[in-house]
């Protein structure tokens, strides 16, 4: 499968031999350019083909001993000058980039970026490119964008690039279900998945009481690869247990070797672990909610003329007892099957003893959408339906509602549907899941209840600090960022006025 094949790209800059090829190519190109020679000029003087020289310069091939002698003689440099990994002063910045974790671990090929072309760009202006990369690193540090946040941002960008729809994994899950005569429904039993893991993949599965150790109390599962032993927290509800088991099947059936061994992230050694974890989770979602039936039932739901939250609750309960699983599974099909690509998914979390709202998960199939999460401690808009639900949620209550959110400062409107509930595995916190769909001519035709009189249109912002709604009754902070931007704009206008008066 294409998806599985992509995994091999992660070794591309790690091997020493690869690094040596790249450095040799860069040095060869530099010596050639110092003489103002084209590739064809060098080919003529050495008797080597132009295509062969191009592959050397792009780090794809390393020439044999006799070819290096031909090159050194033509370029009037020594053999050692070419083969040494010591770089010229102008190329030293490139070494920093090539040896950095950034260049080693980010899977550029996933985004259609050719390694050779990127190296070529860097070699043309090494200082400028390196300065740019260093600037990105500095920004990430200043805004608390650590390694984890950075890699998860890369992961989200990858999902968005493919509209969060991966047909190869959909097909693999359907194939596994057919091979094992699984009915993809809400009634899929954990006992069946446990049996499959034991018999097909030689697993040992134990239920464990982690409550005796406060540090492990919230750990959902632990996998011991040396023994193929899966330890499950005995506090798991059925939905959590089924998802973890389905995910373990995904790791094995898709042959994803590099993986995290805990359900809750503690650490990771490479981006590949994050990617494989996503693939296995996607596979699990496919096993738990049938794509074919989800398309059918969602179409029927969209055809309803009036908005009724009970209808959505019934739809969710038809497939799963986990609203989170349902909402996220919807993002897999809305783009590919309904042509709805302008959407976002958010998961909010709020502790009972705190007024702070955090975005735990997010996905945007169109990067231009608001809102996005932020790490600057700004206050998310309290007018969002998902946030309002969190504040009004009662004990052991599941609350579903929707609104038309009009983003005043962006002049766009979204149909936003949200379900909130108490986090079943963490005392003292509530979660709210929401799906936002951009309202335009296309989506208004596809979703009949989007024009329902039962839906209120609410003016919203992104954060209080950047919002222009001055008379907001739930504002948590003055619009300091907006005011600063306005002040700077006014200053520019005043300066331009003075300038024009003096010309």
Structure characteristics:
503 residues, alpha+beta, Arc Repressor Mutant, subunit A, six-stranded mixed sheet, globular
Mind explaining what this structure looks like?
The structure is a single chain. This protein has 503 residues and is α+β, with helices and mostly antiparallel strands. Helices cover 49% and strands 13% of the residues. The chain folds into 3 domains: 141 residues, 434 Repressor (Amino-terminal Domain); 122 residues, Orthogonal Bundle (Arc Repressor Mutant, subunit A), CATH 1.10.10; 164 residues, no CATH class. It has a 6-stranded mixed sheet with strand order 5-4-8-7-6-9, sandwiched between helices. Strands 1-3-2 form a 3-stranded mixed sheet, with helices on one face. The longest helix has 23 residues. The protein is globular and about 80 Å long. The chain starts with a helix and ends with a helix.
Tell me about the largest β-sheet: 6 strands, mixed
Compressed to H and E, one letter per element, the order equals HHHHHHHHHHHHHEEEHHHHHEEHEEEHEH
| Shape designation | globular
Low-confidence stretches: 1-15
Q: Which structural category fits the helices and strands? A: alpha+beta
Instruction: Tell me the strand percentage band.
Output: 5-15%
- What is the mean predicted local confidence, pLDDT? 84
Number of strands: 9
How would you write the strand order of the largest sheet?
5-4-8-7-6-9
> How far from one another are the termini?
67 Å
Rg result: 28 Å
């Amino acid at each position: 499968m294409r998806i599985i094949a992509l995994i091999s790209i992660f070794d591309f800059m790690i091997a020493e031999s690869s690094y040596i090829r790249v450095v040799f190519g860069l040095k060869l190109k530099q010596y050639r350019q110092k003489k103002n020679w084209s590739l064809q000029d060098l080919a003529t003087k050495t008797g080597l083909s132009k295509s062969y020289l191009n592959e050397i310069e792009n780090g794809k091939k390393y020439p044999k001993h006799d070819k290096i002698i031909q090159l050194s003689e033509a370029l009037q440099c020594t053999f050692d000058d070419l083969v040494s990994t010591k770089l010229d002063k102008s190329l030293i910045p490139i070494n920093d980039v090539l040896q950095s974790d950034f260049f080693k671990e980010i899977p550029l090929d996933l985004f259609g970026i050719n390694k050779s072309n990127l190296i070529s760009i860097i070699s043309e202006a090494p200082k400028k490119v390196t300065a740019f990369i260093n600037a990105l690193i500095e920004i990430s540090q200043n805004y608390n964008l650590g390694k984890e946040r950075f890699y998860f941002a890369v992961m989200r960008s990858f999902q968005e690039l493919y509209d969060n729809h991966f047909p190869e994994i959909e097909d693999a899950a359907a194939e596994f279900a057919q091979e094992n005569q699984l009915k993809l429904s809400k009634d899929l039993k954990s006992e069946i998945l446990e049996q499959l893991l034991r018999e097909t993949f030689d697993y040992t599965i134990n239920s464990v009481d982690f409550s005796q150790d406060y540090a492990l109390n919230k750990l959902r599962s632990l996998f011991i690869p040396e023994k193929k032993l899966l330890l499950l927290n005995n506090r798991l509800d059925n939905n959590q247990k089924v998802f973890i088991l389905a995910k373990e099947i995904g790791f094995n059936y898709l042959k994803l070797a590099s993986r995290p061994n805990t359900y809750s992230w503690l650490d990771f050694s490479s981006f590949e672990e994050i990617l494989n974890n996503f693939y296995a989770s996607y596979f699990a979602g496919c096993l738990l909610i049938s794509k074919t039936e989800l398309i059918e039932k969602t179409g029927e739901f969209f055809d309803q003329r009036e908005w009724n939250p009970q209808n959505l609750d019934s739809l969710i309960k038809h497939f799963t007892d986990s609203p989170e699983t349902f909402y996220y599974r919807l993002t897999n099909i809305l783009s590919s099957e309904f042509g709805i690509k302008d959407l976002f998914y958010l998961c909010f979390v709020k502790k009972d003893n705190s007024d702070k709202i955090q975005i735990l998960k997010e996905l945007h199939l169109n990067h231009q959408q608001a809102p996005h999460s932020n790490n600057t401690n700004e206050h998310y808009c309290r007018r969002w339906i998902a946030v309002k639900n969190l504040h009004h949620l009662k004990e052991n209550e599941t609350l579903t509602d929707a609104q038309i959110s009009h983003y005043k400062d962006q002049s766009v409107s979204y149909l936003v549907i949200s379900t909130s509930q108490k986090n079943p595995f963490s005392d003292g916190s509530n979660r709210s899941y929401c799906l936002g769909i951009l309202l335009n001519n296309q989506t208004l035709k596809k979703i009949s209840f989007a024009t329902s009189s039962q839906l209120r249109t609410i003016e919203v912002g992104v954060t209080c600090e950047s919002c222009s709604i001055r008379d907001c009754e739930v504002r948590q902070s003055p619009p300091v960022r907006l005011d600063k931007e306005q002040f700077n704009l006014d200053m520019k206008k005043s300066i331009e006025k003075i300038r024009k008066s003096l010309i």
